[in-house]
Amino acid sequence: MREITIGTNQCGQRLDKFLAKYLKEAPKSFLYKMLRKKNIKLNGARAEGSERLREGDIVTLYLSDETIAKFCGRPLTVSGHVADNPLEIIYENEHIALINKPAGLLSQKARPEDDSLTEQFVRYVGETEEGFVPGICNRLDRNTSGIVIAGKTLAGLQKMSELLRERQLAKYYLAVVKGTMAKGGVIRGYLRKDKRTNRVELFSTEVPGSAYIQTGYEPLCSDGAFTLLRVRLFTGKTHQIRGHLGSIGHPIAGDWKYGGQIEGSRIKRQLLHAYEIEFPHMDGPFGDLGGKRFRAGIPEDFCREGFVMKLIERMKRNETDSDVICNRI
């Protein structure tokens, strides 16, 4: 038997959702069967699973330790932050963390043996209240670097997910593209992903299976052959920036999938970096983030080619904005 006292991070969710996280390896049919047989109770009484949990509620599992261990499958045994954790934290408070993800690291694992940003963040946060798993709120492609928002508490995960879903966060990227671009603009259209090829198709009008996308861009500087862009992501779909810029004849340098390959170059990935994020004005527990902007330092591999370094240096000389938080270029 095990008793679990519901804390701040777990309250507000349905009992069956909590059980699915706590006993993550258990089939849903098993959980509902245990509820029907009163082997799982809420505050000493029979429960259906649809109840909303409140802080201080007690969930009792009338299961053997072996069964609980088998179905938990998530021993969080690290207490506190791991000293040798590789994460680069840009900002952190009680509820969230902003992480500068390096290129080459998956946001979420694709195979059971993968070690992704999600697993690294769980190790970083360490022990939490039982039934809650810290996690990331947005994803970047494996070979795109930059800011990823992560939730340390349930409240943090929910609030950041809400801001992303309602498009209240202003997200900006740096991209080095082929060719000269003298004017900024906004690209609109529809995107559909081909899961077989892991590429996206773009359309001017809606087609079955497509989603609306909108991307803004502003040239920062150019050397005649390449242009450094500041890209505004209004919607967040797979390969959106890569596909959109490729569709107007200016693919991202190093992005072979959408026409950005450079013969003889040392560039090993698309030069796309999630550079800056701006929060809307907020009150309450997230008021300290209201109206603030954060930047992720540009990684060394982004500037591997000399022409990119020159573009970055030119951008820095043109910088006049002084109220950016954690500008670590």
Please tell me about this protein's structure.
This protein is of the alpha+beta class. It has seven helices and 15 strands. Strands 5, 6, 7, 8, 9, 10, 11, 12, 13, 14 and 15 form an eleven-stranded mixed beta sheet that branches. The chain has a four-stranded antiparallel beta sheet with strand order 1-4-2-3. It is elongated. The termini are far apart. 33% of the residues are buried. Mean pLDDT is 87; it is low at 74-84 and 320-329.
Properties at a glance:
329 residues, alpha+beta, eleven-stranded mixed sheet, four-stranded antiparallel sheet, disordered C terminus
**Radius of gyration using CA atoms only:** 23 Å
Distance between the termini: 53 Å
Oligomeric state of the chains present here: single chain
Number of distinct helices: 7
Q: What is the arithmetic mean of pLDDT? A: 87
Looking at the structure, what is the overall shape?
Answer: elongated
Task: Please provide the ordered H/E string of secondary-structure elements.
Answer: EHHEEEHEEHEEHEEEEEHEEH
Q: Which range does the strand content fall in?
A: 25-35%
Structural class, from helix and strand content?
alpha+beta
Uncertain stretches: 74-84, 320-329
**Percent range for helical residues?**
10-25%
Strand segment count: 15
Biggest sheet overview: 11 strands, mixed
Which helices and strands, and how do they pair?
Blueprint: E1 2-5, H1 15-22, H2 28-36, E2 40-42, E3 45-46, E4 58-61, H3 65-72, E5 89-92, E6 96-101, H4 117-125, E7 135-136, E8 145-151, H5 154-165, E9 170-178, E10 185-194, E11 199-203, E12 211-222, E13 226-233, H6 240-247, E14 272-278, E15 293-295, H7 306-318
Parallel strand pairs: 8-14
Antiparallel strand pairs: 1-4, 2-3, 2-4, 5-6, 6-8, 7-8, 9-13, 9-14, 10-11, 10-12, 12-13, 14-15
